[in-house]
Amino acid sequence: MEHAYLGIDVGSISTKGVIIDKKNHILSSQYIWTQGDPIGAVKELVRLLEGQFDKERYKIVATGATGSARKLVGTILGATMVKNEITAHAVGTTTFYPDVRTILEIGGQDSKIILVENGVAVDYAMNTLCAAGTGAFLSSQAKRLGIEVEEIGDYALRSTHPTQIAARCTVFAESDLVHKIQMGHPREDIIAGVCNAVASNYLNNVGKGKKIVSPVVFQGGVSKNKGVVAAFERTLGCPVIVDPNGHLMGALGAAVLARRGSGRQEFDFSVENMEFRTREASCGGCSNHCEIICVYRGDQLIDSWGNRCERGAGVH
Question: How far is CA 196 from each of CA 81, 202, 301, rounded to the nearest angstrom?
């Protein structure tokens, strides 16, 4: 049987998964909402991936996990590789775009920029504190304007006079947007203004002080918004590449890292039927009072983390 590699990226908003072959061709892929339940999301993701996967021809021999819940997911799946989002996105992007110099990424609740030289990430910045300019911000503004978030790009591209929208933070942007609606600005101009505000906020915050060099690759859920892509291209003065699988790039990077790694496993799709639970334990062994996260499969402790010294190793 031919070898295949699973990569999973679990974020606060969405959970992404891909299975690739040894040449990085995608054999199966899924994108679903996390809905505050990373364990449930991963089990559902595995079920959906299995439905597309040819188990007669391929077998999964390594798994990579990334994203904000990577440690938890890695434990559940018995992952052979667990890496942070910066590494996973950089590896995924450079695998398919070896000449990339700048990676822009905007997700549901956070955003990041990665600068690349000779195929290696040399600098990065992340913004997890301000929601302005993220997918959640765009979704809330679309709802306020009475349109589907998927329609924002088409509306924005019809605008000839984008409305100026304050982009300093969510509160100011929403207040300014309501004011512009009340003044009677056309809907498409307001939406184009929101897209421009997203790009402006990103470049003035996440990209502040960074030298953005072409080729530029834009990924994350917001990269599907044609209005924001156009706003970045106008502001940066260069083409912005959007890969059709850009929303899966973290998972692709995790799968590529798993393929490159030395760890091997016999992946079992039955994980979707297993029962997992987590609990928090407090260690009073020293003044740190570490909060330790314990993961159980049934009644069996399979992993724990959070202790900053050896005193917490046995707490569960």
Answer: 38, 10, 49
